[in-house]
Amino acid sequence: MVQIKWLKSAKIDLKEIYDFISLDSKRYAKHQVEKIQNKVSILKNGILIGKQVSEIDDEKIREIFEGNYRIIYRIISKDEIHILLIHHGAKDLLRRIKP
C-alpha cells in the first residue's frame, strides 16, 4: 500500500479552506475538509489515478479533484507520494507555483 505524506503547504491549505468556509458554516467546513482527505485516501490503491498537472511539465506531479479543489501530489516512489497543495480550481495555479 502507498504511504501518503501531507507536506506543510497542503496542511496549511486545508486549514485555510476550513477557515474560509467556516465563516458561513463550521459544519460544512469540516465536511469539505473530510471530503478532501477521503479523496486523497484513494491514492493508497493507485498512485497513477490522477492525471498529470497540465501547467507543470513533470509526469511525477499529478492531480485528483474533489469538487472545486485540485489535490496536487508528487510521486516519490511506487510506495510513496507527497501531497503538495490543495488549490481551488477558480484560481490561477501558475501564480502560486512560480517563484
3D structure, described in words:
With 99 residues, this protein is of the alpha+beta class. The chain has a single domain (3-97), classed as YaeB-like fold (2-Layer Sandwich). It has three helices and five strands, in the order βααββββα. Strands 1-5-4-3-2 form a five-stranded mixed sheet. α1 runs antiparallel to α2. The chain is globular and about 40 Å long. The model has no long low-confidence stretch (mean pLDDT 91).
Which tags fit this structure?
99 residues, alpha+beta, YaeB-like fold, five-stranded mixed β-sheet, 3 helices, globular
Runs in which pLDDT lies below 50 for 5 or more consecutive residues are none
Radius of gyration from the alpha-carbon trace, in angstroms: 13 Å
Helix share of residues? Answer: 25-40%
Output mean pLDDT: 91
Order of H and E elements: EHHEEEEH
- The CATH homologous superfamily is named RelE-like
Largest sheet: 5 strands, mixed
Strand order of the largest sheet: 1-5-4-3-2
Oligomer: single chain
Strand content: 25-35%
